[in-house]
Amino acid sequence: MYLLEAQNISKSYADHQALTNVSLEIPKQSIFGLLGPNGAGKTTLIRIFTSILQADSGTILLNGEKLERNHMQNIGYLPEERGLYKKMRVGEQLLYLARLKGLDRSLAIDRIKHWLKRLDMLDWSGKNIEDLSKGMQQKIQFIATVLHEPQLLILDEPFSGFDPINVNIIKDEILNLRDAGSTVIFSTHRMESVESLCDRIALINNSKKILDGNKKDIKYQYRTNRFQIDHVGPLQDLNEVYKIIESETMDDNWFHSVIQIPEDHNPNQLLKELIVQTEIHKFTEIIPSMNEIFISKVSEQA
User: Fold this and answer.
1) Same domain, 162 and 80
2) Number of independent structural domains in the chain
3) Residues 6+ apart with CB under 8 A from 97
4) Max alpha carbon distance in the chain (Å)?
5) pLDDT tens digit string along 161-215?
6) Is 0.85 surpassed by the pTM of this model?
7) By three-state DSSP, how is residue 138 classified?
8) Same domain, 35 and 144
9) Where are the beta strands (DSSP E) in the chain?
């Protein structure tokens, strides 16, 4: 069952086509990576999801219903452009934003205390926003996004301004929210975060969707039949059907090699060849990273 569906969404600004017939299906309780280079159309699509913009054509469904203004209470949106009132105190600002999302005062206060304590910021509740570091302000904006426990969380570059420790803290919270039932749309240029967080991804470039699916399936789809082998002694009598991409000495008589096998061969055949001529200590298939796939697909389009 899909929480959010985009059906043939198109949007243009004057003579610029921002989105062209983009369709997405985002499963419930998943983390969905929305990827693409700058100017690809990601932000426009997110603004359509949050009713900030209206599509020129196409339909958005939330829980099978056409998206309407009243659905916004079920959506939490953390925009890339940060927007906090710098002269307001942390606690007052969070209470104000929670009330805008429909929480009563008592429940809002309880949840604010819970999240400030959880992110180790309880002592900062009486401080003005302008007294906080950029990373601390980002934590406050994250709290404001999740306070009303929305079904759908849309996070646009949520790790901007964070040091590595706080990146890991927020990553863990995103995973916890998914496990508790939330669906997350996660837009970022940080491919290492996509690797560690996302269940599914879609790649948009030049206003069009060019890749979509389960992250693991996509990575296997783009594998190149290359294997990394650590072994003792050089490879001298390897069957010519196997291509040695690289081979370098690591220490003494230890070698690190990368070998490509033909599409009609399997790894066991290569392993059988290797065993009779070298001592193998590592044999691993090289699976392309999301960063490599991203660059490959965008470059291919260019």
Assistant:
1) yes
2) 2
3) 144, 147
4) 76
5) 788 999 999 999 999 999 999 999 999 888 889 999 999 999 999 999 999 999 9
6) yes
7) helix
8) yes
9) 2-13, 16-27, 31-35, 57-62, 65-66, 75-78, 152-156, 183-187, 200-205, 208-214, 226-232, 243-251, 254-260, 279-285
